Amino acid sequence: MQPQYDHIQKSSLYLIIFATGVLQLIAAITFSPWSISIFPGIILFFSGIIVIFLAFGFQHLQTVDQGNYLTIGFGKLPLPLCKRKLFYKTIIKVEIGRTLQLDGWGIHYSISGGWVWNIWGRDCVVVYCEKETLRIGTDDPARLSTFLQTKIS
Q1: Per residue in 124-152, pLDDT tens?
Q2: End-to-end alpha-carbon separation of the chain, Å?
Q3: Cystine design at 70: which of 7, 21, 86, 89 (Cβ 3.0–4.6 Å)?
Q4: Strand pairing partners for 64?
């Protein structure tokens, strides 16, 4: 079945995460031989690899209709990370909004209340559900909002 809504937002901010991982690898290789203990170098090396791995997972935010629910997820195949299901039957109200400057990007609880899933920019769709509020960052807020309006029962 073809989804009624499928959108991938891309961001180049993952390059900052990638660069941090590369710097960790360089530090591990450069400073380990002169260190009293090899343990800090091992920690830097493996954490650098993990950070690089995560960087590639956080270059896309995909929002897809799955019939009864919407999936929101960072990354895409072959490296999907952090997925969430939003069941349409729990949605009360939908509106176009903007995240706060302090919200930034990633997955976290906003100081204005509710969860934020954002990868780039401040445009979002605010989804009021039965038990929570969710802000879905998107570069396509009008189309996502209109789609979700059609799913509210």
Answers
A1: 999 999 999 999 999 999 999 999 999 98
A2: 21
A3: 86
A4: 6, 71
